[in-house]
Amino acid sequence: MNQFSDTAWERVSRLRGAIHALPFNTELAGGTLSTERFRGYIVQDALYLGQYARILALAGARGPDGAVLHAFASCALEAVAVEQALHVQYLAQFGVDAARVANAEPSPDCLAYTNFLLATAYHEPWEVLVAALLPCFWIYWDVGSAIARRADAANPYRAWIDTYADVAFGEAVRTVIGITDRAAAATTPAIQALMLTAFVRSTQYEWLFWDGAYQQRGWPQV
Fold first, then answer.
1. DSSP string, 73-107
2. Which residues lie closer than 8 Å to 200 by C-beta, 6 or more apart?
3. Which of 5, 26, 98, 168 is 20 to 30 A from 126, alpha carbon to alpha carbon?
4. How many Cβ atoms from other residues are within 10 Å of residue 193's Cβ?
5. What is the 3-state secondary structure (H, E, C) of 175-209?
6. Rounded CA gap, 178 and 11, in Å?
7. What are the structural domains, with CATH classification, of the chain?
8. Nearest to 55 by CA among 107, 126, 144
């Protein structure tokens, strides 16, 4: 019998292919992504992570027992800490000061994604929240690992690539996958269906986030 993660991963197989084929990711792999596009992405990702870390803490606190709290919080928040350290490096490299990040407005895609996760954290069962959080880990590992296999060592975005292809990050991803699978196995078919819907929606937001960064999508002027 398939685990929840097997079913969910297969369910988004076509969308995963579309994520890999996005201009942002293909140009990043080739080292040709414009500095301006990457700079905008890093600023928005920093805003996203500020909310994501809080939602991860909620997921840990809502877990069914202390073991899940410890496992989920430690692996997930450590992964976020690694990402935040990467942002500090890139913000300095690309000349973005802390004030720009602090004063930045979330893009439509960033705001929609974090609002979806927050709504899930406060209004849906814990199992659904865990499923909604999983794609951010898993998709990044998938993309980072694929890019690492073909990117040149001199790629200007090599630090980003290496972070998400790193063995330690992969272990964190596998831990969250395991938590999600155990949560699904212990709940009802109705909740499992909601979990799958949340997993798909977050994967769609992953596509939107990268596409929005490449298109430099912002808010309509007033």
1. HHHHHHHHHHHHHHHHHHHHHTT--HHHHHHPPPP
2. 8, 11, 12, 15
3. 168
4. 11
5. HHHHHHHHHHHCCCHHHHHHHHHHHHHHHHHHHHH
6. 18
7. 4-215 (1.20.910.10)
8. 126
pLDDT exceeds 80 at position 167: yes
The rounded Cα 179 to chain-centroid distance in angstroms is 17
Q: How far is it, in rounded angstroms, from Cα 138 to Cα 143?
A: 9
Between 170 and 83, name the one with better pLDDT.
170
pTM over cut 0.85: yes
In degrees, to the nearest 5, what angle opens at C-alpha 177 toward C-alphas 147 and 160? 25
Cα(180)–Cα(72) distance, integer angstroms:
10
State residue 102's pLDDT score: 75
Residue 131 near residue 200, CB atoms below 8 Å: no
Specify the pLDDT at position 83.
66
* Amino acid sitting at position 44: Q
What is the enclosing helix (H) or strand (E) of 168?
helix 167-185
Tokens of 37: 């596009």
DSSP annotation of 166: -
Cα separation, 135 vs 4, in Å, equals: 13
Token pair, residue 216, equals 């430099």
How many angstroms separate the CA atoms of 95 and 85, rounded?
16
In the chain, the amino acid numbered 191 is: I
